């Protein structure tokens, strides 16, 4: 109720400003209004570590964000959610590791007046915490906030993938970013190329840090599938780059060839599959419960991704941790972990017709060769055990913050 009253009041005040003032003056007053509210909120958000994340709904990036916050929970972190979440699936878990403020209810960030208002709120809260760390990911507001922060405040960003546009937004703020985290070697090289093309000083490359993601590894290798049908799984969004419609076409191709496979799709993706192909797929919708998603992995054999671009999807890591055989287009950093024919299969990112053809051929091979299926499954699980360790993940994030003595865990932050 209090949030709704605050929302209506802010909206009313800003509407009045917009109607009666010139844009530069509106933005100035909007920023000042935000700073006034920030003064009232500051006592409730004293911290050494602030995170700016877009959402708390279910998703691979959001799961990674929770792991980072969990690793640094002893810093008494605060998490600001800046965008409207589709559901509150992961909010409780965030709240178990940090104090949170969700202003996704005020999701008007295509409007400069609202952007400047929240910049005023956040810069006041953060600047009043003297020396601290601000960590942002997938967040335009984070980059717009940076010029308003005091010089002694450490700014760190995380790029899950290169090519979505956020790397272009961040380019203006490279000199103010103390450290940048990426999750695969491909993005390291992409950033360096971007710097060179835009005449960014080569020394800025030293601020790029590679920290690969992690997942929980279930005890013991996955069970053997003694059934004659292979279960092909997709988990994710229905966004354009995921090309889920191709999975519908592949399922139709398999049906026409009587291939013994079943397609299971998790996520809000039904509308992404052509209507004539939906009857060949089993849609489970959004699955928020982690135990339920783990059970789905345990009962699946193959993970199928046909994306046009990726970083290194968490869903592949989760699948490999369950001994699932991944078939994926060779994009982003996927080939850094998937060795074709050894612990998964890579498909050239060619025309859609060729992707459908090549995926079908791999599925046919696996359906007729159980020893191959079992060997690749075993190699995937062993690779995950060795490389996707969360202890290593936490150690690297702690070292990112504490390793240069900018942050001392026992004594707090220091200049």
Radius of gyration: 23 Å
State the end-to-end CA separation.
Answer: 41 Å
Shape: elongated
CATH class of the largest domain: Alpha Beta
Overview of the molecule:
Keywords: Glycosyltransferase, Membrane, Transferase, Transmembrane, Transmembrane helix. It holds the Pfam family Glycos_transf_1. This is Glycosyltransferase. Its EC number is 2.4.1.-. The structure is a single chain. The chain has 415 residues and is of the alpha/beta class. Helices cover 42% and strands 15% of the residues. α2 runs parallel beside α5 (112-127) and α9 (244-256) packs across α12 (352-367). It starts with a helix and ends with a strand.
Q: TL;DR?
A:
It is built from 14 helices and 15 strands.
Attribute tags:
Rossmann fold, 6-stranded parallel beta sheet, disordered C terminus, 415 residues, 7-stranded parallel beta sheet, 42% helix
Provide the fold topology.
Layout: H1 2-20, H2 23-41, E1 49-53, H3 60-71, E2 78-81, H4 91-97, E3 99-102, H5 112-127, E4 133-137, H6 140-145, E5 154-159, H7 166-170, E6 179-182, H8 185-197, E7 208-210, E8 230-235, H9 244-256, E9 261-266, E10 281-285, H10 290-298, E11 302-305, H11 314-321, E12 325-329, E13 345-347, H12 352-367, H13 370-387, H14 390-402, E14 407-408, E15 412-413
Parallel strand pairs: 1-2, 1-4, 2-3, 4-5, 5-6, 6-7, 8-9, 8-11, 9-10, 11-12, 12-13
Antiparallel strand pairs: 14-15
Helix pairs in contact: 2-5, 9-12, 11-13
């Amino acid at each position: 109720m209090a949030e709704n009253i605050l929302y209506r009041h802010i909206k009313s005040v800003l509407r009045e400003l917009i109607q009666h003032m010139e844009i530069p003056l509106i933005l100035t007053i909007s920023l000042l209004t935000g700073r006034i509210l920030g003064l009232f909120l500051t006592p409730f958000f004293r911290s050494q570590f602030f995170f700016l994340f877009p959402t708390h709904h279910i998703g691979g990036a959001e799961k990674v964000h929770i792991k980072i916050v969990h690793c640094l929970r002893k810093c008494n972190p605060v998490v600001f959610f800046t965008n409207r979440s589709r559901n509150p699936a992961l909010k409780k878990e965030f709240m178990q590791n940090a104090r949170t403020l969700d202003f996704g209810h005020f999701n008007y960030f295509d409007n400069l007046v609202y952007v400047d208002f929240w910049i005023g709120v956040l810069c006041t809260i953060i600047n009043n915490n003297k020396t601290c760390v601000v960590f942002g990911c997938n967040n335009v507001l984070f980059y717009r906030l940076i010029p308003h922060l005091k010089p002694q405040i450490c700014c760190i960003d995380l790029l899950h993938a290169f090519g979505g546009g956020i790397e272009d937004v961040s380019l203006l703020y490279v000199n103010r970013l103390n450290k940048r985290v990426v999750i695969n070697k491909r993005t390291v090289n992409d950033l360096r190329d971007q710097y060179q093309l835009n005449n960014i000083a080569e020394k800025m490359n030293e601020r790029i840090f590679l920290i690969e993601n992690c997942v929980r590894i279930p005890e013991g290798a996955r069970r053997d599938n003694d059934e004659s049908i292979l279960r092909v799984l997709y988990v994710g969004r229905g966004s354009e780059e995921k090309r889920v419609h191709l999975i519908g076409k592949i399922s139709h191709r398999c049906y026409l060839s009587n291939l013994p496979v079943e397609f299971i799709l998790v996520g809000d993706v039904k509308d992404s599959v052509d209507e004539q192909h939906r009857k060949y797929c089993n849609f489970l919708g959004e699955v928020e419960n982690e135990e339920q998603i783990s059970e789905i992995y345990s009962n699946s054999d193959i993970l199928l991704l046909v994306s046009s671009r990726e970083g290194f999807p968490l869903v592949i890591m989760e699948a490999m941790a369950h001994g699932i055989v991944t078939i994926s287009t060779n994009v982003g950093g996927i080939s850094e972990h998937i060795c074709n024919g050894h612990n998964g299969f890579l498909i050239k990112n060619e025309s859609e017709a060729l992707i459908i053809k090549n995926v079908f051929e791999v599925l046919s091979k696996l359906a007729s060769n159980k020893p191959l299926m079992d060997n690749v499954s075993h190699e995937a699980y062993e690779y995950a055990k060795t490389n996707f360790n969360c202890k290593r993940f936490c150690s690297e994030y702690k070292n990112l913050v504490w390793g240069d003595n900018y942050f001392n865990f026992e004594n707090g932050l220091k200049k």
